[in-house]
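Two records follow; treat each independently.
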Amino acid sequence: MPVVIGVDSSTQSTKVEIRDLDSGELISTGRSAHPDTGTAPLSETNPNEWLNAFNAALEIACAKNPQTKFAAISIAGQQHGLVTIAHDHKIVRNAKLWNDTQSAADAKWCVDQRGAAWWAEHVGSVPVASFTVTKLSWIKRLEPQNWSQTSRICLPHDYLSWQLRGGGATEITTDRGDASGTGYWSAKTNEYDYEVLNIIDAKRDWSTSLPRVASPLEQTGTWRDAVIGCGTGDNMAGALGIGLQLGDIAISFGTSGTVYAVSATPTNDPSATVAGFADATGAYLPLVCTLNATRVFDKFASILNCDLQQFGELALGSECGAHDLVLLPYLDGERTPNLPDARATLVGLNGNHTRNDVARAAIEGVVCGLFDGLTAINNCGVNTNGRIFLLGGGAQSKAVCQIVADLTNREVYVLNEPEIVALGAARQAAAALTGKWPTWHASSKIAAQPIATSSQGSATRQRFAAARLKSFGV
């Protein structure tokens, strides 16, 4: 039977899924961890580590049937990372990742050159430290030798797809979804914005430096006789994996947290809260991203001397609002709101609070930050009255699911698929092969189950907003 491969190359690991082309049934899966990327504000890695992890994960996935013949493959990757390639096709320096905030000063400088409204109008987003455009500025400013050696630049998923095609002098391509997260490609015009790029370096020939933006169903090459899809960013692949429709909301709890919705029209937000991204199908994906999500859970589980399952049980042992205890979860700065130098703060702690309250406040703090983002998306005119889907590692926690429901007083749906991004990449691979999107999302394999709700969430979200305003002025 023909099979397709979906790849999720995230910050921490690479996941590979092999699925039946016709039904979407998961046949096998493999996973391989990435090396540590450094200590904040630094987050860098050698891009070849992604390739090594892909090969290791693929070997695991193919262990039971090493002679499997693949029909198509597509790669989803972490957004915003910057890969620099020299004239001899070698890596110039380690890739700077989305959560590297060393370019915070460059983000401010970029915005100051034209103003926030200008950036939002041109590329749908206002630069923050995570965006690729700020990392270009950082390298040009602080590493002029590396900048002069750089011939081509691309994103993580672009790099992996390029390597599958053979690397070297072969063409590098990207897609509209991932390109829209760079800060120099416009979802509104479907083109690179050279006026933006010339702010960084007016002397560079950008037309030869940038990947070609492939169309959503394009076949961009072959690997082991399999068709290669154009790939996309991890959030865009998540939307594909869910089968997200207009009005639906997706909230992802991974290393970072994201909330996004599908829009029929492009958006722009001069406040820099909402990124006006494109999706992987031809529509748009307004998105809010926070730096702090599951790592907050990991840290507080460690502080409370328990594992993650026990941490969730502790949280459910408290009530909605954690008895007025609030965590502002900015462990190593934050992207939304733009607070790169902030640190986490517990507000309202008193002698009556328990471990249960601290655990509950940790989860509520992450969730409240994401739902502030949902409000901002709604304020951009986007319909957010549909279903709420949770994905990512944090969505496997009953406590996280219940707290999202409590804080919104809405049903929450959790998909019965552990790797939604890899599933989305597999769907894209199938679409590139056949020329049409498969309808796997209708399968009972990913049927969603609603979570019960509570009516106590509004006051909790208000306390979170008040504590953040008092502590950080936003």
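The next record belongs to a different protein.
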Amino acid sequence: MIEQIQVEVTKRLLQINTIKIQPSNPFTWASGWKSPIYCDNRKILSYPEERTFIRDQFVKVIREKYPQAEVIAGVATGAIAHGVLVAQELGFPFIYVRSKPKDHGLENLIEGDMKTGQKVVVIEDLVSTGISSLKAADAITNFGGEVLGMVAIFTYNFPVARKNFEEAGLELTALSRYQKLIDLALESGDITEDQVESLNKWRESPETWGK
């Protein structure tokens, strides 16, 4: 099932230019890493058909993999809207996790109501190293929730991310992933065979690529 979902989701992300691939003119991430690819999943929200399709795939995965789920959590800020759509479709409570506690009022790190022991599925829009995603999952655990797993729109599938999720004992399921993106972009002519090698080298060692 997930293979078919990844193909269709990736095609749709490419169609609406959510993902840009520029090996010869790389982007610079906040971390300072050079990247031949940029993924902006916030654009999905502007396209009703794609937005609904992504929601439905999240729902399908959650119902199949986590039938015991009780709460949907979104990771701020990119996954909040998608998480709300999923929670609404499932009829579940929704919470979201801030990157850091508010500096005023109740100083919440987690917004919304969740009962101790409730089973939570975390929604992410994008996973790179996995550090911020796993930090959000830890916050939910510390808040008294039981995190069943995480479902993301896209993952770069970096080796460091796979290692981080494995060490955390948390399962990540992505509706689209980097290698599927490269395969489809090559098939459609968006990239060339010559560019594929560079793109694959970047994924294996993004911290040193382009230096």
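Discussion point: The longest helix spans residues 48-65. How would you locate this feature using only the token line?
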